[in-house]
């Protein structure tokens, strides 16, 4: 399992989720986007419709039907009704169910930095756990040590 920690010190999750979802889609993967914040889920939904210079990213919201057909599914819970192997934790909260995915993207801001550190440390004790830390450098994402 791989966990990518993304420190959001410039852009909000709504700006980062479309980038990650598009990259996953290009890699042939489905994505589950999880946030316990209903307003954030709505902002992510809107961002996926209007994502950058390319066409919108096809997606759906859990509970609206046809979840199993969605390449990107937005949900309050980490249950992959779309059979996603990648999960984006957009609200910065680690969920134990995330360990069932092949790849996890934990997006967190300064307000959750300490929780992310604790999660990093805890996950480092697990076998077969690959951890990566990403930070924005100007307008690009760079992996940091």
TrEMBL record:
Cross-referenced SUPFAM superfamilies: DNA polymerase III chi subunit
GO BP of this protein: DNA replication; positive regulation of DNA-templated DNA replication initiation
Taxonomic source organism: Allopontixanthobacter sediminis
Name of the protein this chain belongs to: DNA polymerase III subunit chi
Listed GO MF terms: DNA binding; DNA-directed DNA polymerase activity
Annotated Gene3D superfamilies: DNA polymerase III subunit chi (3.40.50.10110)
Database matches in Pfam families: DNA_pol3_chi (PF04364)
């Amino acid at each position: 399992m791989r966990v990518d920690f993304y420190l959001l010190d410039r852009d909000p999750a709504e700006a980062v989720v479309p980038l990650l979802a598009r990259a996953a889609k290009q890699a042939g993967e489905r994505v589950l986007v999880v946030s316990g914040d209903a307003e954030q889920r709505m902002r992510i939904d809107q961002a996926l419709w209007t994502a950058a210079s390319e066409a919108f990213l096809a997606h759906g919201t859990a509970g609206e039907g046809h979840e199993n057909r969605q390449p990107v599914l937005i949900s309050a819970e980490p249950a992959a009704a779309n059979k996603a192997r990648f999960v984006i934790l957009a609200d910065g909260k680690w969920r134990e169910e995330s360990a069932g995915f092949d790849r996890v993207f934990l997006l967190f801001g300064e307000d959750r930095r300490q929780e992310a550190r604790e999660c990093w440390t805890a996950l480092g004790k697990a076998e077969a756990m690959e951890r990566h830390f990403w930070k924005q450098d100007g307008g690009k994402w760079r992996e940091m040590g």
